[in-house]
Amino acid sequence: xxxxxxxxxxxxxxxxxxxxxxxxxxxxxxxxxxxxxxxxxxxxxxxxxxxxxxxxxxxxxxxxxxxxxxxxxxxxxxxxxxxxxxxxxxxxxxxxxxxxxxxxxxxxxxxxxxxxxxxxxxxxxxxxxxxxxxxxxxxxxxxxxxxxxxxxxxxxxxxxxxxxxxxxxxxxxxxxxxxxxxxxxxxxxxxxxxxxxxxxxxxxxxxxxxxxxxxxxxxxxxxxxxxxxxxxxxxxxxxxxxxxxxxxxxxxxxxxxxxxxxxxxxxxxxxxxxxxxxxxxxxxxxxxxxxxxxxxxxxxxxxxxxxxxxxxxxxxxxxxxxxxxxxxxxxxxxxxxxxxxxxxxxxxxxxxxxxxxxxxxxxxxxxxxxxxxxxxxxxxxxxxxxxxxxxxxxxxxxxxxxxxxxxxxxxxxxxxxxxxxxxxxxxxxxxxxxxxxxxxxxxxxxxxxxxxxxxxxxxxxxxxxxxxxxxxxxxxxxxxxxxxxxxxxxxxxxxxxxxxxxxxxxxxxxxxxxx
Length: 515
Prior knowledge:
Structural class: mainly alpha
Oligomer: single chain
Number of strands: 5
Shape: globular
Helix content: over 70%
């Protein structure tokens, strides 16, 4: 028996000698940022394990994406149809340039109020509901706008634009839809596609206007002419757009639905929800998210001023009518399409922050040229200043919307609230579109009589452009200060979607702390 035991001990000893000693490497908490591993009683840095291979992405449902793009297209067709003729329409129903400012500003005010509401609604329920209801509201608003001629009331024109502003608030849900169905790395490209389709709508609007302006239908007091056709035509287009959202549009999965499929639980209510909102408000003041808000405000302020004063200047100083204004808006829209396509092409080579900086610089140069040389106004000077500013507007808008969506993804990786965050983002744009028209109509007034050419001395271009330059200077400075933080690590953008609440992903945790 002793020999057997000695043989077993000898065999065991030989086996242990031949193989490597059994050493257990125990990881510390996965929440530890350094992620060290322990070796016996000593610790050493162990390379972070690679991320698991990404799951095969589902193909995008293109019919749904096209349906959403149609909504943005129609919103811009409306803009392209209405803007060339709204000033003359107001004059016809006893309005003036001041009421033009009210119409544009209150349109943006109603949009401002509804943007976060629609975003919250789409997060809590479905995007389809928001889209369909907004289309119905748009039909009502355009009907009120078109029938203002029967009552000969400029206030009905303004009321119609207020109601249409509610319809346009669905744009925040459009952006959250893009965020839901695309990877962060390709988001700016898809934002560029959306902006490109919108710009095509801007071109199509004046083209429709040219056709509708030569079609007059009269029945008693009711008539459809170059001023009212835009409203009736938009009613038809919006009504046609409702069935695709009912029968074709496919709702993207919410965070709760994704968790249900994975048999996981996430918390989005109570203190956690309000804590996240509080963090978002703090980030708005101290992080690159706040820079996006500032840039959005300035870009929309400049755009709304341009859309307010362009038709006033062209009509009062150069004698443009609806046809000439439609041609002008078509040229501007074509320029915007080209710029957006260039942004989409170079997005792979240039980061969003460089595109934003380029756009802000163009707006600054255009405003400086207007400040010093926009006197004794000539048509060629008007074209140059407008062209330089237009270079900056779409490029800035495309880049800032894409960057903001990426920042939200990496800053709040567990949040299912893209809709409401996009709504808050666009509130700043809507606020700018309230103040811009008021400032534009104050600095560049017009005479209510369309046959009277306003004395250029009454139109204070130095005040107009001086204020724009004063706004752009600090925004450019803040952009330069935060320039490094506006660059998102490409490794983070390769993550197809943020993890669900309760999951611990070191890469995303590091991103949240950094941004």
